[in-house]
């Protein structure tokens, strides 16, 4: 007996004892007892279910004796739940039904009494039955309560699209279900006791269906439900009518959504309504021409998955890794997207069936297709087995000995090493086909060895004395630089020895470091000071030391000459960028595509890119969601900074990009927090995920569209719901409590420090009553505070305030409040005195300048003076000139002030020029990681102009 089988037997005996404790006096024939014992050892899931519900055993033994080719899950479930009269009983029954049949499926699989194809079909059919039958029960219940929505073909259903493997009838054993809901047409329920629009009816129905399936009760869970593939993602309506659905996919549908829709399947019974939905999707997914552009989109998606594997440090992942399940899906779906419009036989959902069609249509050689199918089924069998051990969604190979032994027993291997060899062969076969068809292999280094590179290989790879190493570097560098480079290289080698990296890492470094040194030495020809060359070397070596245990990143650099060039260039231009890459190695992926690196994502695409990135994260994995938000910010900031340091973006565009990046992240954080709060407490009256009656007001640099690389977010939260009302959840709380908890959750998501740092530092001191005030207040309370209690400096701050998250009607209400406050008549001499007094306090406490050095933010004649001048002019003149309240950014306000003759054109030009130059300097000082102090001679003219205008404006104070 091997130690592996011994572990399984021990586990089986432990569970057998527990089973006998709950089922004494039970005797089964030896053959059945042996089957049960074997299952108890192989699956914790089966064991725990049978111990908790021993009444399942008789059904299980019957199934094992006569494995069914097909099961009428829907008919059986209908008989059980249609007589029920309340939701609690419904929830209990569908969970019991799910667990019973999943135990049966797992048992047949683990004992190898059915094929993996049959298992996939049973799992999918069971999911269909649970979703559809639960929906039908709830629909009937809703129609009794509210009335039935009618359409041209009779009662309107809520159409349910199953996506991914559910749509393809190849569902994982333990899987999320990706769903999209829609309904035929807008309208109003006829004869309802009170008016109820179809949209409201179906939204309520969708929420109840998700709750029925997704909620974890004492009886467990049916399925984790993921709705993020719907139009507009989490910010989109939960359910959409077909006209809006069609408009979205015609006008906004993206390539990744086409890819997702290949497997989309209407789960409802066939009807004219379901036919309408299919007719909408067909032209979006399948183009009438041969669509080779789809290949590039698939290649980009695979690149994103590779990035995800590196980002999450995934190893031994049979789904996402090279040669994994996802690559087979890409191969099949590439043919469907490219040729499906012409070859209608490819317009099917299932992957296995698609591979068969590819053979029939001679689109893929029969031998290759057969190999792909065999390898795919092998991986799916391994995946199912891994998930059946504990009913957990995993594609990672086991690390513990018990699960390794279980896998070997189920797959009939004598040792885990034999299994690994067979698995590797299948994954190589898949990857070779993937590379032939789609190919995402980085371009190999084709640079021939040069004498310089050969010398640098000697310097790194050979055990040389310091003098010998200096002699090598002396051939290409000055004496002083050669000595400094030699010291740093020898020190780096010593550090590496202390870290004991893997043999693979050492081999990679052996080839990589000489190439990087070659790039660095070439860069020194354009460097003015030796210190800059040494700093460049230090930054690059520091990055290598930070990723020495993450060999995939070392190999990424080795295999991509272009990535090496971008790394050296960016490390030379900006120590801030170098530090970011060292802290967050995922940013190395960005170096692979220079065209994208130096062309930041357009503002309007931030939300879409963020949604796509979050779709690869489990919806209940909050920690990874927070990591993803931070990594998205870091990636986008790297692109902005790269364009900035190379001169591709002017200063105002840099701030625009950074500000609208913050907008996208704020929206996502609010949506995430809302989802978490409503799941727990329900929703406040009159609100929904689309209309939260909640807004985020941005102040300061955020409000003024002037964010920098290290800027905090100055925000205030407001809402528009009656605070005396209650939420509608089972754990109901007051609306006031709800919004306070929502604000706390938002702050948590922003400011929690993860391995990728904070998302943003958030400053809420500008809220009514400052730090002693509530985190969120009603908009009317905000207006009252601004009108009756706010200080002049708070009105100054309001000049640069605007809504950065919230629906148009709330933004309009805030704008009216802001205009009313800013337009109040003010006594000018008193206003001058208060503004000057506040400015002097700031200068006394914050200015770091002196006779030689200028503080570009706080010094006399610097940024803060310009900001205070603008705020004074708005507060002094808005009563007569309300147009001054239109903008929140200083440059456009200055332009408006000149247009309205409040200031001269000369003053406007001098202030704008100074302001932009100061801000540009501030951005670049951040990227160079230098202080905000500069030689006063550099900006003497700006400082003189601003100071002269200040003195003229406030001369009577």
TrEMBL record:
<feature type="region of interest" description="Adenylyl transferase">
    <location>
        <begin position="454"/>
        <end position="957"/>
    </location>
</feature>
<keyword id="KW-0511">Multifunctional enzyme</keyword>
<dbReference type="Pfam" id="PF08335">
    <property type="entry name" value="GlnD_UR_UTase"/>
</dbReference>
<feature type="domain" description="Glutamate-ammonia ligase adenylyltransferase repeated">
    <location>
        <begin position="565"/>
        <end position="816"/>
    </location>
</feature>
<dbReference type="GO" id="GO:0016874">
    <property type="term" value="F:ligase activity"/>
</dbReference>
<feature type="domain" description="PII-uridylyltransferase/Glutamine-synthetase adenylyltransferase">
    <location>
        <begin position="838"/>
        <end position="928"/>
    </location>
</feature>
<comment type="function">
    <text>Involved in the regulation of glutamine synthetase GlnA, a key enzyme in the process to assimilate ammonia. When cellular nitrogen levels are high, the C-terminal adenylyl transferase (AT) inactivates GlnA by covalent transfer of an adenylyl group from ATP to specific tyrosine residue of GlnA, thus reducing its activity. Conversely, when nitrogen levels are low, the N-terminal adenylyl removase (AR) activates GlnA by removing the adenylyl group by phosphorolysis, increasing its activity.</text>
</comment>
<keyword id="KW-0548">Nucleotidyltransferase</keyword>
<dbReference type="InterPro" id="IPR013546">
    <property type="entry name" value="PII_UdlTrfase/GS_AdlTrfase"/>
</dbReference>
<keyword id="KW-0436">Ligase</keyword>
<feature type="region of interest" description="Adenylyl removase">
    <location>
        <begin position="1"/>
        <end position="443"/>
    </location>
</feature>
<dbReference type="InterPro" id="IPR043519">
    <property type="entry name" value="NT_sf"/>
</dbReference>
<keyword id="KW-0067">ATP-binding</keyword>
<dbReference type="GO" id="GO:0016779">
    <property type="term" value="F:nucleotidyltransferase activity"/>
</dbReference>
<dbReference type="Pfam" id="PF03710">
    <property type="entry name" value="GlnE"/>
</dbReference>
<protein>
    <recommendedName>
        <fullName>Bifunctional glutamine synthetase adenylyltransferase/adenylyl-removing enzyme</fullName>
        <ecNumber>2.7.7.89</ecNumber>
        <ecNumber>2.7.7.42</ecNumber>
    </recommendedName>
</protein>
<comment type="similarity">
    <text>Belongs to the GlnE family.</text>
</comment>
<dbReference type="InterPro" id="IPR005190">
    <property type="entry name" value="GlnE_rpt_dom"/>
</dbReference>
<keyword id="KW-0460">Magnesium</keyword>
<keyword id="KW-0808">Transferase</keyword>
<feature type="domain" description="PII-uridylyltransferase/Glutamine-synthetase adenylyltransferase">
    <location>
        <begin position="299"/>
        <end position="437"/>
    </location>
</feature>
<keyword id="KW-0547">Nucleotide-binding</keyword>
<feature type="domain" description="Glutamate-ammonia ligase adenylyltransferase repeated">
    <location>
        <begin position="34"/>
        <end position="276"/>
    </location>
</feature>
<dbReference type="InterPro" id="IPR023057">
    <property type="entry name" value="GlnE"/>
</dbReference>
């Amino acid at each position: 007996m091997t130690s592996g089988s011994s572990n399984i037997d021990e586990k089986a005996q432990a569970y057998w004892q527990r089973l006998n404790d709950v089922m004494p006096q039970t005797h089964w024939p030896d053959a059945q007892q042996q089957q049960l014992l074997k299952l108890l050892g192989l699956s914790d899931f089966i064991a725990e279910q049978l111990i908790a519900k021993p009444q399942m055993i008789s059904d299980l033994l019957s199934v094992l004796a006569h494995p069914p080719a097909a099961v009428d899950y829907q008919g059986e479930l209908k008989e059980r739940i249609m007589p029920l009269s309340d939701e609690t009983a419904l929830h209990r029954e569908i969970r019991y039904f799910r667990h019973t049949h999943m135990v049966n499926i797992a048992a047949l699989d683990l004992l190898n009494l059915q094929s993996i194809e049959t298992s996939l079909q049973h799992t999918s059919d069971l999911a269909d039955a649970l979703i559809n039958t639960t929906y039908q029960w709830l629909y009937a219940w809703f129609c009794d309560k509210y009335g039935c929505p009618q359409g041209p073909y009779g009662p309107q259903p809520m159409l349910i699209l199953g996506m991914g493997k559910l749509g393809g009838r190849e569902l994982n054993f333990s899987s999320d279900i990706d769903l999209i809901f829609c309904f035929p047409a807008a309208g109003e329920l006829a004869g309802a006791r009170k008016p109820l629009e179809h949209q409201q009816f179906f939204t309520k129905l969708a929420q109840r269906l998700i709750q029925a399936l997704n909620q974890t009760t004492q009886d467990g869970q049916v399925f984790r439900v993921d709705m993020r593939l719907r139009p507009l993602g989490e910010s989109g309506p939960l359910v959409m009518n077909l006209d809006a659905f069609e408009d979205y996919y015609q006008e906004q549908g993206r390539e990744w959504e086409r890819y997702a829709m290949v497997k989309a399947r209407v789960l409802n019974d066939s009807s004219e309504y379901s036919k309408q939905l299919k007719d909408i999707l067909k032209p979006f997914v399948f183009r009438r021409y041969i669509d080779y552009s789809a290949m590039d989109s698939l290649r980009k998606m695979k690149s994103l998955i590779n990035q995800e594997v590196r980002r999450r440090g995934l190893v031994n992942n049979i789904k996402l890794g090279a040669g994994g399940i996802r690559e087979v899906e890409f191969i099949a779906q590439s043919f469907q997207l490219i040729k499906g419009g012409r070859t209608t036989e490819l317009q099917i959902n299932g992957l296995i069936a698609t591979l068969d069609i590819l053979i029939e249509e001679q689109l893929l050689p029969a031998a290759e297709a057969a190999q792909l199918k065999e390898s795919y089924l092998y991986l799916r069998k391994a995946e199912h087995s891994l998930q059946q051990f504990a009913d957990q969604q995993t594609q990672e190979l086991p690390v513990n000995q018990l699960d390794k032994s279980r896998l070997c027993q189920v797959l009939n291997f004598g040792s885990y090493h034999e299994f690994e060899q067979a698995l590797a062969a299948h994954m190589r076969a898949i990857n070779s086909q993937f590379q032939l068809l789609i190919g995402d292999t980085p371009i190999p280094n084709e640079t021939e060895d040069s004498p310089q590179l050969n010398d640098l290989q000697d310097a790194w790879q050979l055990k040389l004395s310091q003098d010998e190493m200096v002699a090598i570097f002396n051939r290409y560098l000055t004496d002083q630089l050669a000595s400094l480079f030699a010291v740093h290289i020898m020190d780096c080698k010593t550090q590496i020895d202390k870290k004991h990296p893997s043999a693979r890492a050492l081999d990679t470094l052996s080839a990589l470091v000489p190439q990087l040194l070659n790039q660095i030495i070439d860069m020194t020809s354009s460097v003015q000071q030796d210190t800059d060359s040494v700093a460049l070397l230090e930054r690059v070596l520091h990055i290598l030391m930070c990723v020495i245990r993450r060999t995939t990143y070392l190999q990424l650099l080795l295999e991509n000459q272009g990535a090496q060039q971008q790394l050296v260039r960016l490390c030379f231009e900006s120590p801030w960028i170098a530090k970011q890459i060292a802290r967050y190695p995922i940013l190395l992926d960005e170096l692979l595509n220079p065209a994208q690196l130096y062309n930041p994502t357009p503002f309007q695409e931030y939300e879409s890119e963020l949604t796509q990135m979050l779709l690869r994260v489990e919806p209940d994995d909050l920690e990874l969601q927070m990591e993803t938000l931070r990594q998205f910010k870091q990636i986008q900031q790297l692109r902005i900074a790269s364009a900035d340091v190379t001169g591709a973006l002017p200063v105002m565009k840099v701030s625009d990009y950074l500000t609208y990046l913050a907008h996208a992240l704020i929206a996502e954080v609010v949506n995430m927090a809302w989802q978490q709060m409503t799941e727990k407490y329900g929703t406040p009256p009159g609100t929904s995920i689309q209309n939260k009656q909640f807004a985020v007001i941005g102040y300061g640099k955020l409000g003024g569209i002037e964010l920098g690389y290290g800027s905090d977010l100055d925000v205030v939260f407001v809402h528009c719901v009656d605070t005396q009302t209650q939420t509608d959840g089972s754990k109901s709380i007051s609306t006031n409590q709800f919004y306070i908890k929502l604000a706390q959750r938002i702050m948590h998501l922003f400011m929690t420090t993860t391995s990728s740092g904070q998302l943003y530092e958030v400053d809420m001191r500008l809220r009514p009553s400052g730090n002693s005030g509530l985190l969120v207040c009603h908009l009317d309370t905000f207006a009252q505070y601004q009108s009756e209690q706010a200080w002049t400096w708070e009105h100054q701050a309001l000049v640069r305030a605007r809504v950065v998250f919230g629906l148009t009607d709330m933004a309009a209400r805030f704008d009216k409040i802001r205009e009313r406050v800013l337009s109040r008549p003010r006594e000018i001499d008193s206003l001058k005195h208060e503004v000057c007094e506040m400015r002097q306090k700031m200068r006394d406490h914050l200015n770091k300048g002196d006779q030689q050095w200028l503080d570009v933010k706080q010094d006399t004649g610097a940024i803060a003076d310009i900001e205070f001048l603008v705020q004074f002019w708005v507060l002094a003149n808005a009563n007569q000139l309300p147009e001054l309240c239109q903008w929140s950014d200083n440059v456009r306000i200055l332009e408006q002030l000149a247009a309205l003759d409040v200031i001269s054109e000369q003053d406007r030009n001098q202030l704008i020029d100074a302001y932009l130059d100061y801000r540009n300097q501030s951005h670049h000082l951040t990227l160079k990681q230098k202080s905000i102090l500069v030689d006063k001679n550099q900006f003497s003219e700006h400082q003189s102009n601003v100071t002269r205008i200040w003195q003229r404006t406030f001369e009577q104070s």
